[in-house]
Design a protein that fits this description.
Layout: H1 2-26, E1 30-46, E2 51-62, E3 69-74, E4 76-82, E5 85-97, E6 100-113, E7 121-138, E8 147-165, E9 168-170, E10 173-191, E11 198-209, E12 215-228, E13 235-248
Parallel strand pairs: 1-13
Antiparallel strand pairs: 1-2, 2-3, 2-4, 3-5, 4-5, 5-6, 6-7, 7-8, 8-10, 9-10, 10-11, 11-12, 12-13
Length: 250
């Protein structure tokens, strides 16, 4: 009975999230609407109970409706200072291949608060500050291959609130399964990067399974809204299907 109730709760939350996201997109004047697939793997190495390496790497844009691909590597560390607080930091390296290629170096610092924790749901709030250093190179037809178009900097703040259900066997699957929903918004504090002209937020909904003590598999749907300012006059919607793996090395 308890399992059946949890399944209904997770399914209801998932449907409400997707429906709300879709309704919000229909109210905007769209200039483009993209479908994307993302795939990544998170690796964790626990040096102590409090200190760990916790990085990820992956690809985005494969099977995208638009002609672009992105590869990234994001090594990071975390320190669990208390039961409810984790401090994080790292650096990301992003390679974007499209009409104008770019390489981005992105140091970042963050804090994650695990609260509140209920019987069936665990919430966390995550704040991250990113320093984005972007080098653009043009590959336009007729342009000199590798021509540099400029070095740019951005300072960006991100905030995410997430709810995750307690893992437990469901629907005959013996290993623990859990559901997840989240909302995240991005705020540009200082920037001359072209994408800073857009206000961006994301809605997440997904399911995961702890297939072993080492491996976790997750499947996410991500709804991304980009809203241009008066100068840009462009709004966009991205629909993302993401496969996310996690492996605990130690």
């Amino acid at each position: 009975m308890g399992q059946s109730k949890t399944v209904r709760t997770v399914a209801l939350v998932f449907c409400i999230t997707v429906a709300a996201a879709t309704r919000g997109g229909n109210c905007q004047v769209q200039e483009w609407n993209d479908f994307q697939t993302w795939a990544d793997i998170r690796t964790v190495y626990n040096f102590t109970d409090a200190f760990a390496y916790d990085g990820d790497q992956g690809t985005r844009g494969i099977l995208s409706a638009e002609d672009w691909n992105l590869l990234y590597f994001r090594p990071s560390v975390k320190y669990k200072s208390t039961k409810h607080l984790s401090l994080r930091g790292g650096v990301g390296l992003f390679f974007l291949f499209q009409e104008i290629n770019s390489t981005e170096l992105r140091p970042w610092q963050g804090a994650q608060v695990f609260w509140p924790v209920l019987n069936e749901l665990r919430f966390d709030q995550y704040v991250r500050l990113e320093q984005r250093f972007v080098d653009l190179r043009s590959t336009d037809t007729g342009a000199r291959t590798g021509a540099r178009t400029g070095y740019q900097f951005a300072l960006r703040l991100r905030y995410r609130v997430r709810a995750r259900s307690r893992p437990q066997p469901l629907l005959g699957i013996p290993t623990p399964t859990f559901g997840m929903i989240a909302y995240e918004f991005f705020f540009n504090l200082e920037s001359i990067i072209p994408d800073s002209e857009f206000k961006m937020d994301r809605f997440y909904a997904g399911v995961g399974n702890d297939v072993s003590s080492k491996w976790t598999v997750q499947l996410h749907y991500i709804y991304i809204r980009l809203r241009g300012d008066d100068r840009v006059g462009i709004n966009a919607t991205d629909h993302v299907l993401r496969m996310r793996l996690a492996y605990i090395i130690h």
